[in-house]
Design goal:
The strands form two sheets. A five-stranded antiparallel β-sheet has the order 1-2-3-7-6. Strands 4-5 form a two-stranded antiparallel sheet. 61% of the residues lie in helices and 5% in strands. It has two domains: 2-164, no CATH class; 248-358 and 368-404 and 417-652, no CATH class. By secondary structure, the chain is mostly helical. It has helices at 31-41, 59-67, 74-85, 167-206, 211-224, 233-268, 271-283, 288-301, 306-323, 331-339, 342-346, 353-356, 359-362, 370-397, 426-450, 466-489, 497-507, 509-527, 529-540, 545-560, 563-584, 589-600, 610-618, 623-652, and strands at 2-7, 11-17, 25-29, 46-49, 52-56, 101-102, 127-131.
Length: 655
Amino acid sequence: MYFYFMDRHLGLIHVRLQTWFPLQIQVYLNGHEWLARKLTARGIGYTKLDNTFARVEELPRAQRLADRFAHLDWPSILNRYARLVMPQLDDVLHGCEYYWVAAQAGSHETRGPRRGCRGDPSSRHHAPIEVPSPSASGKREPGANRFRGHSWALPRPFEAPMLAHHDAQRRRASSANSANNNSRRHRMFAVLGILVSLALLIILAYRGWNVILLAPLCAAVAAILSVGDETPLLATYTQVFMPALGTYLMKFFPLFLLGAVFGKLMDDSGCARSIAHQIVEWTGKERAILAIVLACGILTYGGVSLFVVAFAVFPIALRMFREGNIPKRLIPAAIALGSFTFTMTALPGTPAIQNAIPIPFFGTNTFAAPGLSIIAALIMFAAGTLWLSLRSRRMRAAGEGFGEEAPAKPGAATLEEAEPGDVPPFWIAIIPVLLVLGINFVFTKYIGPAMDTDYLATAKYGRTNAGAVSGIWAIIVAMLVACVVLVALTWKRFAKVQRSFNEGALGSMLPILNVASEVAYGAVIASLAGFALVRDWLQSVTTNPVIGLALIVNVLAGITGSASGGMSIALQTLGAKYLEAAQTVGISAEILHRVAALSSGGLDALPHNGAVITLLAICSLTHKQSYFDIFMVSVAFPLVSLVAVIALNGMFGTF
């Protein structure tokens, strides 16, 4: 039986199926057609006559594209078509797989000089890929999912001799040039469409619209404005947007759930307030800024969510700043410095989601590059604390004191919550925090590596490996044990422990759906042809994979206003490429993990960032009053620490 498909990326595909056992399949495709589509998508002009490239504008760039052909994920591509022509693979042959082999590429059709010279690479029109029958055992044989035999390489069509300048060929070339110019204009307009979509997302999110609603709508705007790119809206929503959202939920939902529950338990039991008050007592009220930064840092490093920390610490900060006559507009920056800078992205072992996202992409763990991580954390902490202290002195020297009390905004914390009240002793309150850090470390370094995880390579468990999941397992176990111990130690302090668990679980829904929606929005943007121009430009800035990763994560985090959302989009789109590039030149995956995490905490805290908006609402302050200092401690200094880490890694390697 013969089947013909028009593939979006590969063009016309011909599949030949043997209808008797062993059910062999042959797939025929044209590499030149794949390359032509790639050149068009990237706005590279060319003239293609029949199956020969007579002219290509940017030869080095086009050749780099051609060289990628051999490294496509061929098993996945071919398995998809095998299932289309062999539905029995999902029925009576469930569990069986084809063993793919690349046959030697040769000239199947040569009609004279016009279609390629004898012996010239451009004369290779098609390359069949032959496959033996499915494995009777249903297991992959050694070497399965790898090409055997002839090594694939896309012909170098640019080396073919130029064709004779026949009048008819000139007319066809002129028509092709016109089509390429139109294609280039379409790509540029598509980029403009992406920018319009992003601007709409940023403005509406800043004005309070929920990103769960905005993400699919803004993705649709980008798709509609992607002129020349076939992007059916409904298919894009169901086949691109929703799978990306679901994949993110599948990977990271347990971390959001346990983190929210743990934060709620710490809040309701009084443990968060107990720790904050003890830190204040140790540092003294004259060091109010340092006390607030340390209190927030300890709580967030122990796994308590930013929002719980802000509500717990703000009343204490309000009282301390008033007594010390420190301008209250510095409170948001002090909380931001302790909550979403060094403890979110830098300190090794932090259970923050930003430190967990790189794990499945790079096969690392939360303690990646510990030495460089500590240096980055110290830079952020020292520079931020010094900045706020100097700002406080200058403001007071200029005659600015605590300031007048403003009416509390809805959802803002109150001063009455600042009193210690009936809270557990500090030594009890700190135990769950220490358990999160300790169990995470022990599981990562000792328990995880000792586990027999060979079963992860089977189809039932997603054909993964321990390196991609053990880091996430460590956080899950640590948070789960900490929740159980916390409830056991403070049982009598809960008005109703069931309510605390329920409210914590429900409280995890909005954050993860917000981030997952942003990731899905990014997946749609990444699927558009216009994004290829942006991506290629970002990649062209540098060939260093560490610097390139830092650049693209920062840009996407800034665009989306989300550290986790921007980093997820970047890693899903280019994570594998940067890992391969790093391994080629001997760069450790650990530095990629740490740079990705640090970069996510740079430009993410721009004015439209959700955490910034929420923090200002809790403190009853405005962007005009407080954002400048927030920018310095959560954008400027994290970027300085990122540059320092990249420089130190370049000089001394990863440590």
